Amino acid sequence: MGLSAVTVLGVDRPGVIAAVTGSLADCGANIQDSTMTLLGGHVAMMLLVSGEVDAAELSKRLCAPDLVVTASAIEARRHFCDDGGGLGYVLTVHGPDRPGIVSAISAVLAADGGNITGMSTRLTGRLYVLIADVELPKEVDVAALMRRLAAVGAGLDSEITFRPVEPDLL
Amino acid sequence: MTRPADGMPREVIDAPHPLLSTAAEPVDPTDPGVVAAAADLLATLRHEPSTTGLAAPQIGLSWRLIAFDAGRHPRSRSCTGELVVANPRLATAARWDHLREGCVSVPGLIADVRRATRITVHGHLPGTGDPVTIEADAVEARCIQHQLDHLDGLLFLDRVVGALSLHRSHHSCDA
């Protein structure tokens, strides 16, 4: 059973998700992880699918005139900090829009081995907002990392909060 | 122009603005300037039908004043009514829950935020300076905590629970 990573881009309209997932079902492909959002009125969807159909065949079967579809074979599911030693944090950055905010902030995280596992950015008026889920290796000095993030944020005239995830385990 | 006793609506400022990221200063609730500012804050709240509360930094004043009226919200339970509180401080907070909220100073965005659904807040009434205690739940509790955050220079964006919890409040195409 092979794994494929599928991306779908197109102008948003009712029925896009139904069409894509219907084609996947017709191929016998099983959707595992997936995410979808709207970016400036465009639908952006990414899926990890398993099945007997290979990536090239998936690309053909999902082809639609108003969608850009790609499919790539991937070897196996992978996970950062597989030993369970990672620590989860949520990062918020907000401030005036300017080029380079994401690269500056992500470089600080990467220097400490931090892994961004999810990210949303939104521009509304002059305000740029970045929210990221971050996994840190257990040995990271979080206080020192927060000082570095604050310094970079100040240079961007942006406010930064970095706080541990608070899961409700019931 | 003479300022009416019931205050004048002021412009609500949007983020990014330095005042919205700055901790506000405590006030003397009996100071005539503070009383006038409280009246303006209430007048601005009345002028903003889309919100249930405002904090002084949102009208350009770095003072610890909040105004709220949970009765405007269709899902409110406790409802103290229209109130302005000086130097409010959170005394107790319990029963935390996630809910999607927005802010009149952050137009176009909403997000899931974790807040207490039962709170007790102490403060003082502008004018007399009398102490006041508010017991609030549900929407009113969330609204008051949102305003308290403004007094500490925080936006609801600083409490978003995760990367996928930030949303546009409406869809539009600028192309």
How much of the residues of chain B is beta strand, in percent? 25-35%
Number of helices, where a helix is a run of at least 4 consecutive DSSP H or I residues of chain B: 2
Largest inter-chain interface? A-B, 29 and 28 residues
Low-confidence stretches of chain A: none
What is the oligomeric state here? heterodimer
Protein name (chain A): ACT domain-containing protein
Domain ACT (chain A): 5-76, 90-165
Pfam family, one (chain A): ACT_6
SSE arrangement:
The complex is a heterodimer of chains A (about 170) and B (about 180).
Chain A: E1 2-11, H1 16-26, E2 30-39, E3 42-51, H2 55-62, E4 67-74, E5 87-96, H3 101-111, E6 115-124, E7 127-136, H4 142-155, E8 159-164
Antiparallel strand pairs in A: 1-3, 1-4, 2-3, 5-7, 5-8, 6-7
Chain B: H1 32-47, E1 53-55, E2 65-68, E3 83-102, E4 109-124, E5 131-137, H2 138-151, E6 166-168
Antiparallel strand pairs in B: 1-2, 2-3, 3-4, 4-5, 4-6
Organism (chain A): Nonomuraea diastatica
Protein name (chain A): ACT domain-containing protein
Pfam families (chain A): ACT, ACT_6
